[in-house]
Amino acid sequence: MKYQGKCHKFGNDVNTDYIISGKYKFKTLDMNELAKHVMEDLDPDFYNKITPGDFIVAGTNFGCGSSREQAPLAIKHANISAVLAKSFARIFYRNAINTGLPVIECDTDLIDAGDLLDIDLASGYIINRSKDITIAVKPLPQVMIKILNDGGLAAHFRKYGGFKFD
Amino acid sequence: MKTTLERGINLGKTIIEKILSAHSGQDCRANDIVVAQVDYIMGQDGTSPLAIRAFENMNGKELFDPDKVALVIDHSAPSPLEGVSALHKLMREFAKQKGCHLYDIGAGVCHQLIPESGQVGPGSLVIGADSHTCTYGALNAFSTGVGSTDLAGGLISGKMWFKVPETVKFVCHGVLPPGVYAKDLILYLIGQVTADGCTYMAAEYTGEAIAALSMEGRFTVANMAIEMGAKAGLMEADEKTFQWLKRYTDREFTPVSSDADANYHQVLEFDVSKLEPQVAKPHRVDNVAPISRVLGAPIQQAFIGTCTNGRLEDLRLAASILEGKKVHPDVRFIVAPASRRVYLDAMAEGVIQKLVEAGAAVVTPGCGPCVGTHNGVPADGETVLSTANRNFKGRMGNSNAEIYLASPATVAASALTGVITDPREFVK
């Protein structure tokens, strides 16, 4: 999968409450409705700043906190094509893969807000067009590549009727 | 903090390596990936509706074993909104149709109910669609938080895939001084290692200070492993563990210990014999300070409850400080017992009477105030002192409020005075 877009930059420890507040997640299963409130407590106008295909770029420990899968889903439904961070919290990382939101571990100090990136998930690196540099990407575990290639965990289950990694 | 690194080629195994080996049928080690059988599965009302949708999307028909599945309506209970009511209805109908356990409004917080159910004990493997599922590590179980899609996969197959985590061992020497509790200990440890200090790891807690804790205190410590990024917060089982379990089940469990020559990612040693009460300042759980640095900050709301500190021992402690006194007129004091059983026990002992006489507003056992759905949303510019496990901005429903975290004793003492107060002034 190839993506091109501009970057929105956040800091370290962006938690799942910031991604989608608890007060919204209990109200509905309509992810397009939740998406309007994405990152609201960090930037109240964030949703309106997104051009479809854009990237969220952050520091360490992105997605820490709750197990809510509404967090990656809200990001995905806000038309963000991938999240790039120096590191991700464990549950968020799994949830993102399970629901088909690409999450990319890389040195995000090399990316500033507004930079234009080219991402080819298969290539192992991303290109920062604005800075004319190539940034190495930490590869995903094989199991996660398998789940992503199958189209998410639900599609994997539909295909195999259970876990099938070998 | 003393650090030693013990990485080598030892043959011994950690608790988590043993539990995952037993449940996967594979002799596994840290960083291996295994598919393991789970013993129990739990979902709450913030995560189960999405899991039910994922279950259908996976062409799920029946649950792998209805008796090993519980759905808990605790996060937004009783429902404050029509939209929430619709999600609760979905859970009730699913539970009825599939024959699994359903804990409806008023039963309590999932992480109190699952241990009370007697279904989980030493050596168990549990997944729960709630990040604080790591709580059952206090019972020597490997339990961990997952999202809704992982939960749905578990509901269908009774299995989940795991990367076997490396373990960080926390050795806590010494005995906690009077007025200093399990909550102070875990806040201190999180402050030391930071919010992502154990990401992708299992935390194993040991030492005299852990052995001296009550089971309630151990649940508090295991509960907050996720606040340092850990997948699990494990403890060994001892006589206290078995005594506690006896109250809830006749089942026999087999305790799992780490081998003396197990491989740890890191061993951290702490002397906690001189620890002060600790407070996590806004807006990060690892923004921890000894109470002497935050004394005197005014509060408008005090909250005792949550899966961290809503247990009988916590309510008793608060009542012992508040008995015969009144909370400060500028403070709203909210109490949420962790479960119906805790509520009933606290009533039978007169603990609820004392708290209500002191001015407490007792709300339905559940998670509402902690997660910001209802039952105590602060106003702009207000400060809350809470026994919860998270003080993220907006966590309690208002991003213009400030949340501090502390022990039930610190919250009770501060509710009395209206400012953050050292509980040692009130603890005999």
UniProtKB/TrEMBL annotation, chain A:
Q: What is its EC number?
A: 4.2.1.33
Report the residue ranges that make up the Aconitase A/isopropylmalate dehydratase small subunit swivel domain in this protein: 49-104
Whether Amino-acid biosynthesis counts among this entry's keywords is yes
The processes (GO biological process) annotated in the record are: L-leucine biosynthetic process
Give the metabolic or biological pathway: Amino-acid biosynthesis; L-leucine biosynthesis; L-leucine from 3-methyl-2-oxobutanoate: step 2/4
Q: Catalysed reaction(s)?
A: (2R,3S)-3-isopropylmalate = (2S)-2-isopropylmalate
Q: How does it assemble?
A: Heterodimer of LeuC and LeuD.
Protein family (similarity comment): Belongs to the LeuD family. LeuD type 2 subfamily.
Q: What does this protein do?
A: Catalyzes the isomerization between 2-isopropylmalate and 3-isopropylmalate, via the formation of 2-isopropylmaleate.
Q: By its UniProt entry, which HAMAP family does this protein fall under?
A: LeuD_type2 (MF_01032)
Name of this protein? 3-isopropylmalate dehydratase small subunit
Lineage of producing organism? Bacteria, Bacillati, Bacillota, Clostridia, Eubacteriales
